[in-house]
Amino acid sequence: MFEISKYKDSNVKLSIRLPESIDNTLRKIAEAEEMSFNNVLVSCIKYALDNTDLTKYETKGKK
After folding, report:
1. Which of the residue ranges 4-13, 14-23, 54-63 would you say has the lowest mean pLDDT?
2. Which of 50, 60, 55 is nearest to 1 (CA)?
3. Per-residue pLDDT tens for 17-60?
């Protein structure tokens, strides 16, 4: 189940472009949950990665 968590170890700074509709939705969630936009975004990314089969992205040639 998807849960928004607080992340204190977020220390990589980057700039991204989002479709306006996604930005609006994430900001509404952040406001409703009284969380930062960053926490909502990181939670969404973590949930997506946790629920994706990442084996096809593992480094080729590992033994």
Report:
1. 54-63
2. 50
3. 999 999 999 999 999 999 999 999 999 999 999 999 999 898 86
Are 39 and 5 in contact, with CB atoms under 8 Å apart? Answer: yes
Interhelix angle 37-50/20-33, rounded to 10 degrees, is: 110
- In one-letter notation, the amino acid at residue 56 is K
Q: Phi/psi zone of residue 61: left (φ > 0), alpha (ψ -120 to 50 degrees), beta? A: left
Give the integer Cα–Cα distance in Å for 14 and 21: 20
Asked if 6 and 41 count as a contact pair (C-beta separation under 8 A), the reply is: no
Asked if pLDDT for residue 6 goes beyond 60, the answer is yes
* Domains of the chain by residue range: 20-55
How far apart are alpha carbons 52 and 32 in whole angstroms?
Answer: 27
